[in-house]
Amino acid sequence: MDHDAAIRQLSDPDPALRQLALIELEDLATEASVEPVIGALADPDPVVRRLAVGVLEELGDARAVPGVIARLSDDEPGVREAADAADAMIAAIGHGDAAARAGVIVGLRELKDPRAIAPLVRALSDVAPEVRREAVITLAYLRAPESVEPLRRALTDSHDIVRRVAVGALAYFMAPSLLDDFVRALSDADWQVRRDSAIVLGRSALGGAVPALFARLSDPYWQVQKEVIASLGRLRAAAAIPDLIAALQSPMPDLRRAAAYALGDLGAVEARAPLRDLAADPDVEVRKAVSRTLAALCPIPDSGMVRTGD
């Protein structure tokens, strides 16, 4: 039986002949077979449905993934077992157009199957940046240690949408060995990469990040400056206090607010006077930040009252 004859036989009224056609297609199937075999997933005969799943998994075409996944709720246990969603999607990685390739990778996230790691790493070299982006995000979901080196390389991807998500993905594996990678990302051409790197470094508790953060206080984007200020506060960078006091005079309310909170994180009592000068700031969020920070820096003296439970 040749390929075309097998495809025609998928419409035969005899289920045994339809089954035979799919057995033949296991060896004969081509890209032209995909749509007719997808149709066989809805065949009334469970053996036909099970065989169709097997053929589609062999083909590894992204178009088949939704139909195979739907068979996970098939009435027949044998069909459900054959329709292992992870096998189907892993086989489909790298097939189809860019949208299909990206869609398969998105579908893999919730399955968290470690068998996907190797093909996902290969997808980091896909020609389409949207596919590389989804591969980075899915590797972050899997949290596999072997993903670290490929994700480090993704920080230097040619496209900013990939580098942005690589920063967040690597944050899950934060360790002193990654400090230099995030410090370099603070100088990325894309401001969002720089901003996100500042956030990650602020949460890292790595004091070695402080000099690099200082250098970004003059970043041309206020969004980056804001996160740098916040991170210097979180890292208890006392040397930043003069710069943070100066930032209280920024024309950007977001920077004034960030500086007020950071000075509170640092316990900078020397900032009380300049903070009081902002008590009537035109921005309500700045006034809230100033009020909270001053309350932390100027605690009410203990009145000697006995507290319940003392």
Explained architecture:
- By secondary structure, this protein is an all-alpha fold.
- Among the domains are: 92 residues, Alpha Horseshoe (Leucine-rich Repeat Variant), CATH 1.25.10; 66 residues, Leucine-rich Repeat Variant, CATH 1.25.10.
- The chain is built from 20 helices and no strands.
Brief rundown of the structure:
The chain is built from 20 helices and no strands. It is mainly alpha-helical.
Distance between the termini: 89 Å
CATH architecture of one domain: Alpha Horseshoe
| CATH-assigned homologous superfamily of one domain | Leucine-rich Repeat Variant
Shape: elongated
Q: Which structural class is indicated by helix and strand composition?
A: mainly alpha
| Spans of at least 5 consecutive residues with low confidence | 300-310
Chain-averaged pLDDT: 87
Number of distinct beta strands: 0
How big is the Rg? 29 Å
Say what the CATH topology of one domain is.
Leucine-rich Repeat Variant
Largest sheet, described in full?
Answer: none
Count of DSSP H/I helices: 20
The helix content, as a percent range, equals 55-70%
* SS strand fraction: under 5%
List SSEs in N-to-C order: HHHHHHHHHHHHHHHHHHHH
Q: Which CATH class of one domain applies here?
A: Mainly Alpha
Task: Give the topology, please.
Elements: H1 3-9, H2 15-28, H3 34-40, H4 46-59, H5 65-70, H6 77-82, H7 85-92, H8 98-108, H9 117-123, H10 129-142, H11 148-154, H12 160-171, H13 179-185, H14 191-203, H15 210-215, H16 222-234, H17 241-247, H18 253-266, H19 272-276, H20 284-297
